[in-house]
Amino acid sequence: MNKKCIILLLMMFAVSAEAGERLDGNALKEFWEEKTIVGVHHKHGSIKTYHGADGTAHSVAERGKVRKGKWWIDEASNKKCIEWSHNKKRRCHYTESNGDGTYTLIHGKNGKRLVEISAVLDGNQL
After folding, report:
1. What angle do CA 17, 99, 22 make, to 5 degrees?
2. pLDDT in the model for residue 1
């Protein structure tokens, strides 16, 4: 019984140690580039966003909203940035692991959770 408890505690510690880890450097670029991100945006509901290797971004929300723009990695701050064509406002956010295979996009200034990412798919799967 004691061995089982110790193993269980070690497993719980290992998972929680990864939670809250922010991606940086090459890991950040590899996470986003040539990927379709599936998640839930705090304002727009379910969304899918594709991030092309050429810096293009294309997003489709469950409610029908379509956005196009450009994205890049700000290496100095370790943030993924995006600028949508419709408003030209630069938004830069942290990408954080939840420790369970999911991720969260965190507001770069106020730290609020913006998008809960449930899947990362290879290529453009919009």
Report:
1. 80
2. 46
